[in-house]
């Protein structure tokens, strides 16, 4: 089986779904965060290893660390359940990989929002300054008109 082939892609998809279900519904370890997700699975072409990317929807790095510890302890259970759910010639050995992409994306969104809020504040101050400048110009024009009338 070639890497990236239709069969390999289908196996990756089935393994991802199976492990996501088992982790969310059957793993009872209290260290595993309730918002844990399997973002991807990559099964090698010889079906001997499966690289499972795990993500936790949380702002705390400690949650991801504890979840990974809990899942490491649950690897034999995960492999057994994977063998029961997905019918493969060999049940791959599970290698867990912490996926920080979601946390990174959340952090970047927060930064973008902060910059946008700052830009809105700067724009509001600029508009206030322009309105004040227009008011000053109008006052100056009125004074000039009054001075012109007083001279005549």
Describe this structure in words.
- The protein is an alpha+beta fold and 152 residues long.
- The chain has 2 domains: 6-99, K homology (KH) domain (GMP Synthetase, Chain A, domain 3, 2-Layer Sandwich); 102-152.
- The chain has 4 helices and 3 strands.
- The chain has helices at 6-25, 61-73, 75-85, 101-151, and strands spanning 36-43, 49-56, 93-98.
- It has a 3-stranded mixed β-sheet, sandwiched between helices.
- β1 and β2 (49-56) form a beta hairpin.
- α1 packs across α3 (75-85).
- The radius of gyration is 30 Å and the shape is rod-shaped.
- It starts with 5 loop residues before the first helix and ends with a helix.
Task: Write down the Rg.
Answer: 30 Å
Judging from the principal axes of the Cα atoms, what is the shape? rod-shaped
Secondary-structure element string: HEEHHEH
Structural class: alpha+beta
List how many beta strands DSSP finds. Answer: 3
Q: What is the total domain count?
A: 2
* Count of separate DSSP helical elements: 4
Percent range for β-strand residues = 5-15%
Short description:
This protein has 152 residues and is of the alpha+beta class.
Q: Could you outline the blueprint of secondary structure elements for this entry?
A:
Elements: H1 6-25, E1 36-43, E2 49-56, H2 61-73, H3 75-85, E3 93-98, H4 101-151
Helix pairs in contact: 1-3
Give structural attributes.
152 residues, alpha+beta, GMP Synthetase, Chain A, domain 3, three-stranded mixed sheet, 4 helices, 3 strands, 62% helix, rod-shaped
């Amino acid at each position: 089986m070639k890497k990236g082939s239709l069969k390999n892609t289908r196996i990756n998809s089935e393994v991802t779904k199976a492990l996501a279900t088992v982790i969310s519904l059957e793993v009872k370890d209290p260290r595993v965060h309730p918002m844990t997700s399997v973002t991807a699975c990559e099964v090698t072409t010889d079906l001997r290893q499966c690289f499972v990317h795990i993500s936790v929807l949380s702002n705390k790095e400690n949650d991801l660390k504890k979840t990974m510890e809990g899942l490491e302890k649950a690897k034999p259970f995960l492999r057994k359940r994977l063998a029961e759910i997905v019918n493969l010639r060999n049940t791959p050995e599970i290698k867990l990989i912490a996926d920080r992409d979601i946390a990174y994306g959340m952090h970047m969104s927060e930064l973008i929002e902060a910059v946008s809020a700052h830009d809105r504040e700067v724009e509001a101050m600029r508009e206030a300054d322009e309105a004040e400048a227009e008011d000053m110009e109008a006052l100056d024009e009125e004074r000039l008109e009054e001075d012109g009338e007083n001279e005549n």
